[in-house]
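Cont'd.
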Amino acid sequence: MTVLQSKTDIPLMGFVGEVLEALGEAVVEVQQCEPRRGIARIDPTRTVEAARALIAMDGARLATATGIEVRDGIDILYHWAFEPPGAVVTLKVLAARPDLAVDSVAAVLPAANWIEREMHDLLGANFRNHPDMRRLVLDDSWPEGVHPLRKDFDQVLDRPPLPPNQSPPDVVEEGRP
Amino acid sequence: MSHRTVVNIGPFHPLQEEAEFFQLYVEGETVVDVDVRLSYNHRGIEKLDESKTFDQVPFVVERVCGICSASHPLAYIQAVEEIARVEVPERALYLRTIVNELERLHSHLLWVGLAGHFLGYNTVFMWAWKYREPVMEILESATGSRVNYANCKIGGVRRDMTVEQLKEIDRIVGDLNAPLDMLTKAVLDDPVLHARLKKVGVLTPEAVKLYGAVGPTARGSGVPIDVRRDDPYAAYDRVDWQVVTAPGGDVFGKAVVRLLESFEAVKIVQQCCRYLLKNPGGEIDAKVEQIPPGEGVGHVEAPRGETFHYVRSDGSNRPVRHKVRAPSYVNIPTFKASCIGLEIPDVAITLASVDPCYSCTERLCAVADAGTGRRLFGFDELVKRSQEKTRRMRRSV
Amino acid sequence: MALTTWALRKSLWVYHVNTGACNNCDIEVLELLTPRYDIERFGMVLVGSPRHADVLAVTGVCTRQAMPRLQEVYMQTPRPCVVMAVGSCSLAQGIFTEAYHMGSPVDEAIRAVDPNAIILYVPGCPPKPEAMIDAAVKGMEYLKTL
């Protein structure tokens, strides 16, 4: 896949424009560039590089990340906040089918640790080299491979069987002293 | 080989209301690692929201967390207003600000009370919660409920406040200045509290940035981030107030930030009430009919920090995707940085210092043993140890 | 007054269990301790262990993860005890009934380990503290008849 050189027809202006320009070739497409909001797509092979560049900027922090199942795979949206000037720049990385895998940025960015685990639980996105990929939000009895935020999962009809009930006690204690 | 033991905190204990399972690994009396298991509170709200209409979602997300109950719907609504490019009427902006700041007031007072309990100052607990009551009452009078206000809707607010209500709010928050002063002085002037809280649970500014910590947790480390000033929403850019920070990164700093922010909240509410009294009438709702396709981001400064919502719409009447990120989700992981090296009696207050709102994040924290995995004791024992330490220090000061 | 005689006979020890709640009910349960409502004048006390409890104040929807723990806590509570299901979530999972991470509702989860469990329902989202006190008194009256 070639990396598009031009940033489509959205002019890069203001603070958001500077941020996107600083990411250089990691940005393959710009979808929005407003004074306080930006959306751009990142080359999946350059996610860690982009994360390093962003966290080095003054006032930058990772607010959170959103995973969305789309036709081609799972889109991971990293939402970066910049204070000042109070801008939010969303960078999209596609974890394409069939592997649904992107490089984890959690080693560079502890802020990404939990949210990548959560996206793995709920969507089945795979984060290569995540330092601690354990189950985070789904319960112990939830089966592997069932991802509730996928579009084909019906929240009522597709629920896995409930965890087993605790067995009732043989002797029931009486009263308190 | 040093012997590591596990100290279990949770999942249920009386004064940390949410079910959380903290796992502390200790060697002797010192914490060497922390782990957290979420899931107890996971209710599948993001998926649930995909089956609700845009107007129904605020009622769901109000119940993500009871103490940030005004923040979550507002963040969601702002995200949708960004998609629909709605211009919210000015009166509605002030009304939103009033409710959100009243929530900040009662949330910070709640925290002061809990912190007081953990440290063995039960009178502080009683006073702080007693002074919360007028705030809850005025919220009930103005919005219909002590919590779960349902005051915002896409495009504005649901109901206006009468002249009497505005005057009453102004008076009640004004009356809070004296007790807030008392509580602040109690913290700033007490040498035992200084000894208990200073240099305890330190979070460096570098850790704040790497973990993306927000709210008083970040501001208590001197990092001046506050969504109300950085990316103003509601009426925050129309009233006069200050961002409060404290250097040091310790529990003391976080406590001071919350107390001083409460004074700022009083100022903000009074300015909003007075403005609305001087400028009666006006629209409170830009009637929004249709949400076009698009994506929007909304963030507000909840009492615990930035609440961040992302919404994607495809032009239908339901969101395609709604991401909810509560402030505690980014603040709790900072325990990895702030709890390591703590002595056991200091754990309870350090855990409490980020004001964890487990429902927001649905966390479980379990204490695990590094060596044997043996459970030592629960959270109530940790609180007892914390209270004992305060008593020892009082005797020696 | 009936309330005083009741209070003189027995004090209620309450253990609070959160099975996946938004905190509103939990905070209102804690409100009961504070000077405004002051349940301690009725002898009600929040205790730190289910083994000392007469009343289990349960909040929350009972998520899948919380369900086994709720059942364990119930089993540790000596009988007779009253389970006070506080709030719409613990009555019937509130607005979350359709969500995927729900366990059985609180009353079904408890009846699965004890079909004769005494369950008190306090509706509201959240119920006001006055409603909880009313419920606790009713629970106490019922316990006296056993």
